[in-house]
Amino acid sequence: MMKFPIITITAGALFAIGFAAGSTAASAHHSVQMYDMQKEVTVSGTVKEFQYTNPHSWLLVDVKNDDGTSTVWGFEAEGPGILMRAGIMRNSLPAGTKVTVTGHPMKDGRPAATWVKLEMEDGTEMVPRAQR
Amino acid sequence: MAVAACAAAILSVSSEIALAQIKGRAMPEEVRKHETEMQALGESFDTAWDLYQHFKKEAKGGTIAPEYSKLPDWSGLWERRDGPFFLDPEQTDFNAMPPVELTPEYKKELEERLKRYAAGDDYDPISVCGVPAGYPRFMVEPFMREFVPTPKQTWLINEAGNEVRRVYTDGRGHIPPEAAYPLYEGDSIGFWDGQKLVVHTSQIKGTVLQRIQPRDSDKAETVEIWEKLDDNTIKVDLWIYDSEAFVEPWFSQQYYRKIPNEDGLLRIHFWACAENQNNVITKTDEGGSTFTDFTFTHKDDKTPKAEQKGQDSQSMPWNEDNK
């Protein structure tokens, strides 16, 4: 349960984008100007759907609000070709999986962000731009 | 270093554009020497075709349609070694002009585009599914690649957008002028010089070489020399001639590294760009980019709390700066 997502603005956030060679797919197909790359949002919830698609995948997370309602957050990541290299498979995040996800949020306030990292209940981390 | 460069670039988005030539980053002396020599060689010829003929003469006509056994082994999956934002791996400044002298019209266009980028209005023509990066931008795109030499054709494949370049090495010439028209991947012919593939490409459809790189024009023609340096490295010497966009030919060295794939899990699949509504991008009135309607929320969800069902995103901290 959360009133608002946790927002942090850190220097580390700047480096979390992962612009090392070959890890830039999130920005290779379209501009990232719709995201505030200097801010981070972290939400906890359950996976609603993992859209494992090109050119980008979307992880939809159901986040419960304090008033009992819920908000679906979308986290954009790379397509399957790069996610597989990070060990993130189509079935890695089935619906109902409890996750905490951090990303750079949309500037316009819509509940979407570019996926920087994800942590599962058992502590397993998933970073879309990690590579073989 | 690439990460630091990116951070620096982000931090400088609101700063004035540094319209200066790049200073370059540390580059091995022999690589820099090669770059200097090849740039000079390029400048000594008026056209890409003349340079191509020079290499053909040096190779004593080269080899046409060699037997399979004579072809190099370029098998496996490859990716660009350097980041995808700059044609020249030496460039690291997101706000700088590239290391090529542009004609006034193309210089002005890039300056204006860099200013929009610095102001946060950034749009990529390939955001529209169905529009490929095209060649020469093909050379800088990330994602997995396959390079497949066969006697009469070599296929240069990029996972992104299902792009395939075909280099004909069966002795044919280019498409005759009366049948030619601008093509996203151009029309490529080549010959083998030992284990090196020498390529001439014409009929290129002009477009941006990346979002923060110059445009080329429909007059662009190129020469490439592809060579495998070791088991994990393929290098391409690339000359771009474009009398409309560039004052002089632009030489750069493109490197591709092999992607570890011992278990064979990684494979190039069909890239269905339009399969997910959530990836649809539109161009804003200011010339920037934004998503259209997500499937999981409406585009107006940022405004009314009732519609947002419990979360008034207008009051979110990251919107405070925009009020």
What does this structure look like?
- By secondary structure, chain A is mostly beta strands.
- Helices cover 10% and strands 39% of the residues of chain A.
- Chain A has helices at 11-15, 25-28, 80-83, and strands at 6-8, 40-51, 56-64, 70-78, 98-105, 112-120, 125-126.
- Chain A has a five-stranded mixed barrel.
- In chain A, a hairpin with a 5-residue loop joins strand 3 (56-64) and strand 4.
- By secondary structure, chain B is an alpha+beta fold.
- Helices cover 17% and strands 21% of the residues of chain B.
- Chain B has a nine-stranded mixed sheet with strand order 1-9-8-7-6-5-4-3-2. Chain B has a two-stranded antiparallel ribbon with strand order 10-11.
- The longest helix of chain B is centred in the N-terminal third of the chain and has 15 residues, at 29-43.
- Chain B is globular.
- The chains are: A mainly beta (132), B alpha+beta (323).
- At the A-B interface, strand 2, strand 3, strand 4 and helix 3 of A face helix 1 and strand 11 of B.
